[in-house]
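quick q for whoever's on today - can somebody do inverse folding on this one?? i tried earlier but teh output was garbage lol. tokens:
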């Protein structure tokens, strides 16, 4: 979505509100496609003392799989993004300033980039997820497994001494 900001470009105190949906269902994250619903993007561009400030929030519900226990779950994801808009830069590049093209800003590109960069690299169903037993595959969140603890091979000689008693 291209947003024309020319009407507020030189009018301090004015703002433009926007809202649209973004389709990221074809974007792959670690072999999965967790964005099955549209991403709702809403925000404002406001002129404060002849400086354009853009604020947006991109939010949706993700369909994820826990990296520890393998359980499928849904979770809400909201990504805020802020930057300033300018017609040109005098001192080279800046991460906090986006350039306007013919008085317009590409909101699709900004929201897509912000959302993708904010995706988690480690996905957990809960902060205290215990995962699966490495020997039998039991879900340790449901309780302890029935596996006998394996002896550290470096302590095998000591274990034999205990068995003799």
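ok took a stab at it. sequence:
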């Amino acid at each position: 979505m291209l947003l024309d900001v020319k009407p507020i470009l030189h009018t301090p105190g004015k703002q433009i509100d926007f809202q649209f949906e973004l389709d990221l269902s074809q974007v792959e994250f670690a072999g999965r496609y967790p964005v099955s619903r549209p991403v709702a993007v809403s925000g404002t561009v406001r002129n404060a003392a002849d400086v354009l400030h853009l604020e947006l929030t991109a939010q949706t519900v993700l369909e994820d799989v826990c990296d520890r226990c393998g359980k499928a779950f849904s979770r809400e994801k909201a990504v805020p993004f802020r930057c300033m808009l300018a017609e040109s830069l005098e001192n080279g590049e800046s991460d906090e300033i986006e350039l306007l093209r013919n008085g317009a800003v590409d909101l699709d590109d900004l929201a897509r980039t912000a959302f993708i960069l904010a995706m988690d690299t480690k996905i957990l169903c809960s902060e205290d997820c215990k995962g699966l037993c490495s020997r039998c595959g039991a879900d340790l969140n449901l309780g302890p497994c029935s596996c006998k603890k394996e002896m550290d091979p470096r302590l095998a000689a000591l274990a034999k001494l205990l068995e003799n008693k």
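fwiw The CA atoms of residues 27 and 82 lie 23 Å apart. also The chain has a mean pLDDT of 90. so keep that in mind when u check it
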